[in-house]
């Protein structure tokens, strides 16, 4: 029977694998959607040029003045193509950042520039960003592949938020492979038949060391003895090489000067 820590480790890493899969699906779907939108914009520009050069019917005019470019997610407005492309590029950039955060590399970069995605925070911020990305994609008309990938990422984000509320900031340390290896190097068992015996195992070395240590060590209060400013202090300073000079006798400035008497 595995200890409870093993089930937590397996569950959190399984959630990490699903999160990576969802991010990869969203990454690929956004690239496909971006390429499809650019092709639709190219066709729209060609059709617009043909419609202006020749007499067109009402259907063509409705298509040219529609809210969105036909067969795309690009709004038919000034600079609509630019903002649609920027939106897709930002989503791809955020997905790449989340992927690196899931792999934990480079950890120093995240701890300094993106602390909420670093090792000191749990899975809650990661889940919130995933939900935001999924909602941003689902709020637009997209292909079935993009909708499925975004809905899957949104679901994984909700689970990450729940895991962050349960495990808090220790979630990433519990799923870390390096921490599992360090814990496995321990010579003493920590669980027997599913029972945690770590307090018992850790108490034995301290008891043994206290028995064999004896009273050889002196208290720190006795080691630090003050000699004061008297004769004992002067002798101790002389033994250490410090010399105390006696000040020269002098009168204060306001004292009257002694006049020599003439006999």
Task: Give an account of the 3D structure.
- This protein has a domain at 4-184.
- The longest helix has 50 residues, at 4-53.
- It contains eleven helices and two strands.
- Helices cover 64% and strands 2% of the residues.
- It has helices at residues 4-53, 58-64, 80-103, 107-113, 124-138, 144-167, 171-174, 177-184, 198-213, 220-223, 231-239, and strands at residues 191-192, 195-196.
- The N and C termini lie far apart (115 Å).
- It has a two-stranded antiparallel ribbon.
- It is elongated.
- Helix 5 (124-138) runs antiparallel to helix 6 (144-167).
- Strand 1 (191-192) and strand 2 form a beta hairpin.
- By secondary structure, the protein is an all-alpha fold.
Helix count?
A: 11
What level of helicity do the residues show? Answer: 55-70%
> Which stretches of 5+ consecutive residues score pLDDT under 50?
none
- Cα distance spanning the termini: 115 Å
Average pLDDT metric: 80
In percent, how much strand structure appears in the residues? under 5%
User: What does the radius of gyration come to?
Assistant: 38 Å
Write the element-wise H/E pattern from the N-terminal end onward: HHHHHHHHEEHHH
Instruction: Give the biggest sheet.
Output: 2 strands, antiparallel
The backbone outline, from C-alpha atoms, is: elongated
* Total strands: 2
Spatial strand order of the main sheet: 1-2
Question: How are the secondary structure elements laid out?
Answer:
Elements: H1 4-53, H2 58-64, H3 80-103, H4 107-113, H5 124-138, H6 144-167, H7 171-174, H8 177-184, E1 191-192, E2 195-196, H9 198-213, H10 220-223, H11 231-239
Antiparallel strand pairs: 1-2
Helix pairs in contact: 1-3, 1-6, 3-5, 5-6
């Amino acid at each position: 029977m595995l200890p409870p820590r093993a089930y937590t480790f397996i569950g959190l890493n399984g959630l990490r694998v699903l999160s990576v899969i969802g991010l990869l699906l969203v990454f690929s779907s956004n690239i496909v959607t971006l390429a499809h939108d650019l092709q639709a914009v190219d066709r729209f520009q060609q059709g617009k040029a043909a419609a202006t050069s020749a007499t067109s019917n009402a259907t063509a005019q409705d298509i040219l003045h529609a809210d969105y470019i036909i067969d795309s997610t690009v709004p038919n407005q000034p600079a609509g193509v630019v903002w649609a492309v920027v939106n897709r590029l930002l989503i791809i950039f955020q997905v790449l950042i989340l992927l690196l955060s899931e792999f934990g590399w480079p950890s120093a970069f995240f701890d300094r520039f993106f602390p909420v995605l670093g090792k000191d925070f749990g899975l809650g911020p990661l889940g919130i960003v995933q939900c935001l990305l999924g909602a941003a994609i689902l709020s637009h008309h997209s292909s079935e592949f993009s909708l499925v990938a975004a809905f899957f990422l949104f679901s994984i984000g909700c689970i990450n938020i729940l895991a962050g509320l349960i495990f808090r900031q220790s979630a990433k340390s519990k799923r870390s492979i390096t921490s599992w290896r360090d814990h496995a190097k321990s010579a003493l068992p920590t669980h027997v038949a599913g029972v945690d015996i770590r307090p018992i195992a850790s108490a034995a070395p301290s008891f043994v060391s206290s028995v064999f240590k004896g009273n050889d060590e002196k208290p720190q209060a006795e080691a630090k003895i003050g000699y004061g400013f008297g004769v004992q202090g002067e002798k101790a300073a002389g033994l250490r090489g410090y010399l105390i000079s006696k000040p020269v006798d002098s009168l204060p400035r306001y004292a009257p000067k002694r006049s020599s008497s003439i006999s």
